[in-house]
Amino acid sequence: VDLLKEMIVRKGKVLNSNVLKVDSFINHQMDPVLMYEMGKVFADHFRKQNITKVVTIESSGIAPGIMTALALKVPCVFARKKKPLTLNEELLTTTVYSFTKKEENEISISQKFIDEQDCVLIIDDFLAHGEAALGLAKLTEQAGATVAGIGIVIEKAFQGGRKKLVDAGYEVKSLARIKSLSNSTVEFVEELELEEAAI
Ligand code: G4P
Known about the structure:
By secondary structure, this protein is α/β, with parallel strands linked by helices. It is 32% helix and 30% strand. It is built from 6 helices and 10 strands. It has helices at residues 2-11, 32-46, 62-72, 131-142, 161-167, 191-198, and strands spanning 13-14, 20-21, 53-57, 76-79, 91-98, 103-110, 119-127, 146-156, 172-180, 187-188. The radius of gyration is 16 Å and the shape is globular. The model has no long low-confidence stretch (mean pLDDT 94). The structure holds guanosine-5',3'-tetraphosphate.
């Protein structure tokens, strides 16, 4: 999505060689036009797989997740990082380690919202080491449902998450792939490199 790359270049801030700050349009203030455009791209890419549900994780996965679900006209379920008081029914749970934050989170989804009939599209804002996406895939499979694929807004291609997900058998569609954040500069993976990688 050219609009996304343009916004990353114009409004993103490289905090260090590992972290890109995008809080003016994704992680804090959110741009609804961009979110909906991205949702439509994910929806068009995965539509043929008869997705019945979008699964994401709070908090920053919710906006791209709901927009994708809107474009597909299916429900969006988000995994919780803290168990809410009202969540007293049976839960699917797994543990996700965050390399960025160096902490473990138990994530959960109520069992009643995913079942073996579901074909699930997983959506998240960032792909770093792939732990969150793998955790969401685990929850989906615990429910007996099928993972159709994983849609990522910004992939940090230098952190190895894609390989983990592809090795686990999942299709990954990222809208912006970042090759490097060195020297305070965002460098994207070039189209040519993408074509070569596909050969
Ligand atoms: P992983 O799931 O791919 O292994 O990633 P990791 O644990 O490293 O990421 C943990 C959190 O940090 C996630 O948000 C993720 O979206 C975010 N994150 C990772 N890399 C970056 C980055 O370069 N820039 C920004 N802005 N965020 C990054 P979270 O803790 O779930 O927070 P939120 O969803 O509540 O915002």
